[in-house]
């Protein structure tokens, strides 16, 4: 594994090593060597099941203190969640991001630290009873690490304005994915590079579209949905309304697992519109996610980034994220009490892939009842609990027991905050003739995207896990790194959405 050292010049090479989101959709972390400087773009946590999450415990394959700067594209946990670990292990340099990303990162990282510590205490209690407490790994980081990390944030990135970071000119542009999300134009002596971060769905319910990029030499682009086209917004909204009406008739609980940032606000805004217009009955909505409630405050603060009707509502002093029947659940005791609530109600809780959080106890109490509806509005990694339910597993293991899946499961595809195939190709349209490097996608999805790039006369390559590549070099003859195994296409096993 190459270790960066100060003073080594990689002349004319634009080197990148990806230690996350390479041949997978989580744990984004890319180490760039430009002009002899080492810039880390994103430092995300692996999420979506034990196998992936084990990678969070691997040591960094470089010396954290040797980095010149960190750049963040947006505040999702899979893009910022290992930052406190980087700081715990010695990084003391600046972390550049947009102001909303800094605000959301605080909420996201404090929540993550709390979950780390709670999970550790729980594991320790269990291990003590078995006399195996020595085997429990410590939390990855705690609140103190997060506060040290927050002190390093430099919320100086503004869309369209260039700043110089460690000798590299950095221009962030609107990515349209979540509040504050940016893609980055990096200009160094070697050439011009775009780091896409996560790009938005151009038919999003809240975000403005991404800004068309300028011509560059290389693009590192996310490919979460590079093999499919999302259902349009109007259709998605109609499908959601229908699922809700059907579910209300069942007279049971309607569970909507949702990520706290962007998806929760999109769903709340859509519910408000549909209840106000009479498209769906006004039934109680419980937002059982203190983190989503906190994140919503930032949407008021940075409302200018949102689509015109939402922006207007905010300017008029209205609350576009509050259906009239909304109850915000704060304490875990209140959350538990919801299990005894009679009658139909919508319960929104995290996390979106159902791998942890309050949604789990709601699932334990309701998933086995035929009157329950589970409405899935987010991406489900195939190995996550949500992924197993979507794949049709009859029984799932959660909170220490087996629970039968008898609820009606609705998967609503179009709420995705991610670009689909058409969006990605539209993004590349204005970027000139760059070398296109694919990250943040399942291998078979990226593989299916390669021929589309070739049709447009673009050289495309799948970024290998961990191995360095020269972004301006020739790439791989087939577009695939040596030894890469491409699994067969599998249409099942995941809903749409995505973080
Ligand atoms: Zn994201």
TrEMBL record:
SMART domains: Beta-Casp, Lactamase_B
Beta-Casp domain: residues covered: 264-389
GO molecular function, one term: RNA endonuclease activity
Region (Disordered): 476-499
Protein name: Cleavage and polyadenylation specificity factor-related protein
Record-linked CDD domains: TTHA0252-CPSF-like_MBL-fold
Domain Metallo-beta-lactamase: 26-244
Annotated organism of origin: Deinococcus radiodurans (strain ATCC 13939 / DSM 20539 / JCM 16871 / CCUG 27074 / LMG 4051 / NBRC 15346 / NCIMB 9279 / VKM B-1422 / R1)
Keywords: Hydrolase
SUPFAM superfamilies, per the entry: Metallo-hydrolase/oxidoreductase
């Amino acid at each position: 594994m190459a270790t960066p050292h100060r003073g080594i010049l990689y002349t004319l090479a634009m080197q990148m090593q990806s230690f996350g989101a390479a041949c997978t959709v989580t744990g984004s972390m890319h180490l760039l060597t430009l002009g002899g400087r080492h810039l880390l773009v994103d430092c995300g946590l692996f999420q979506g099941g034990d196998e992936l999450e084990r990678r969070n415990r691997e040591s960094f394959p470089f010396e954290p203190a040797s980095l010149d700067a960190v750049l963040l594209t947006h505040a999702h946990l899979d893009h910022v969640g290992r930052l406190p670990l980087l700081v715990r292990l010695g990084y003391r340099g600046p972390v550049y991001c947009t102001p909303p990303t800094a605000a959301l990162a605080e909420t996201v990282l404090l929540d993550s630290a709390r979950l780390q510590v709670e999970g550790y205490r729980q594991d320790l209690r269990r291990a003590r009873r078995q006399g195996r407490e020595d085997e429990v790994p410590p939390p990855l980081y705690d609140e103190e690490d997060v506060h040290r990390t927050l002190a390093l944030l430099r919320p100086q990135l503004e869309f369209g304005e260039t700043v110089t970071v460690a000798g590299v000119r950095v221009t962030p542009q609107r990515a349209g994915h979540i509040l504050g999300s940016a893609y980055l134009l990096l200009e160094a002596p070697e050439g011009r590079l775009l780091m896409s971060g996560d790009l938005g769905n151009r038919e999003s319910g809240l975000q403005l579209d991404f800004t068309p990029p300028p011509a560059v030499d290389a693009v590192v682009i996310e490919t979460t949905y590079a093999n499919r086209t999302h259902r349009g917004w109007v259709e998605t909204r109609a499908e959601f309304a229908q699922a809700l009406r059907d579910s209300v008739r069942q007279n049971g609980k309607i569970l909507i697992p949702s990520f706290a940032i962007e998806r929760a606000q999109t769903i709340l805004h859509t519910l408000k519109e549909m209840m106000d217009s009479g498209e769906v009955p006004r039934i109680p909505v419980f937002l059982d996610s203190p983190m989503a409630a906190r994140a919503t405050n930032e949407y008021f603060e940075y409302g200018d980034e949102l689509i015109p009707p939402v922006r207007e509502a905010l300017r008029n002093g209205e609350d576009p994220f509050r259906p009239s029947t909304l109850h915000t659940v704060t304490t875990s005791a209140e959350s538990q009490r919801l299990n005894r609530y009679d009658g139909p109600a919508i319960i929104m809780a995290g996390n979106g892939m159902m791998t942890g959080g309050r949604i789990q106890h709601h699932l334990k109490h309701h998933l086995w009842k035929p009157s329950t509806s589970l409405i899935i509005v987010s991406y489900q990694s195939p190995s996550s609990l949500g992924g197993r339910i979507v794949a049709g597993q009859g029984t799932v293991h959660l909170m220490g027991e087996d629970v039968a899946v008898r609820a009606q499961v609705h998967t609503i595809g179009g709420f995705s905050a991610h670009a689909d195939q058409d969006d990605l190709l539209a993004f590349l349209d204005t970027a000139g003739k760059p070398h296109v490097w694919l990250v943040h996608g399942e291998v078979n999805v990226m593989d299916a995207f390669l021929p589309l790039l070739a049709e447009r006369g673009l050289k495309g390559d799948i970024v290998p896990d961990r191995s360095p590549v020269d972004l301006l070099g020739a790439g791989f003859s087939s577009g695939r790194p040596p030894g890469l195994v491409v699994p067969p296409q599998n249409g099942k096993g995941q809903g749409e959405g995505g973080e």
